[in-house]
Amino acid sequence: xxxxxxxxxxxxxxxxxxxxxxxxxxxxxxxxxxxxxxxxxxxxxxxxxxxxxxxxxxxxxxxxxxxxxxxxxxxxxxxxxxxxxxxxxxxxxxxxxxxxxxxxxxxxxxxxxxxxxxxxxxxxxxxxxxxxxxxxxxxxxxxxxxxxxxxxxxxxxxxxxxxxxxxxxxxxxxxxxxxxxxxxxxxxxxxxxxxxxxxxxxxxxxxxxxxxxxxxxxxxxxxxxxxxxxxxxxxxxxxxxxxxxxxxxxxxxxxxxxxxxxxxxxxxxxxxxxxxxxxxxxxxxxxx
Length: 288
Known about the structure:
Elements: H1 4-8, H2 26-40, H3 49-63, H4 68-75, H5 80-91, H6 102-112, E1 122-128, H7 134-146, E2 154-161, H8 164-172, E3 174-176, H9 185-191, E4 192-195, E5 199-202, H10 204-207, E6 210-214, E7 227-232, H11 241-254, E8 255-263, E9 276-280, E10 283-286
Parallel strand pairs: 1-2, 1-7, 2-6, 7-8
Antiparallel strand pairs: 3-5, 4-5, 8-10, 9-10
Helix pairs in contact: 2-4, 2-5, 3-5, 6-7
């Protein structure tokens, strides 16, 4: 244990550190929670203390810091902007998979894409919170399967995430071979390449449909849209209600008239936004 907390009279959070490890104090945790919220909009409760400790302990080791107080000082120091990127990367949870919540992709393939107006042949889809890329690649596979004339369209998928490391991994398009088992066999044959070392890679023609970018949803959005479809699934559960309202209002502003929004299974727009009609199973259509 470091003696820093006793030197400053700081109250240590119990059960946060094993023998030989540093402690995270209540003051440290509060400072980190505030910096995470400022940087990403993510609101961390006391129940996330162990998660914060475990993930940031690795950052302390990498930086050679002896305490969480020193880490907090670094976040607030002249190099704090760079470290806040690492902070957000460490804290964000990246639970995803190919064709997760499969009913969304079924609706996309059978209802939404076939009904697109052929005039202009323009299609824009945004995967907001793309994590390691399984979602946008699932979207692109669905588009390729449901639209035999896709090559004749001006079709693009924008995939963004606040975690820069996840964006880089997603852009590479390489995964353990067992992770692509959730991809339907016909799509796997068409769009997934077996690589050496039990790895699988997304086919170049699939990757060419997707642009990967690092983006903080609470910051400026450089894209102008309009988007026909936005996927933002299992992201807003980490935001408070005012942040959710503002975010869904921005989504509505960037969607084309009648555009669709897909959210996560534990999320809802009830009493959050009146700009969408609920179509069922966390699928929404823009009203205004």
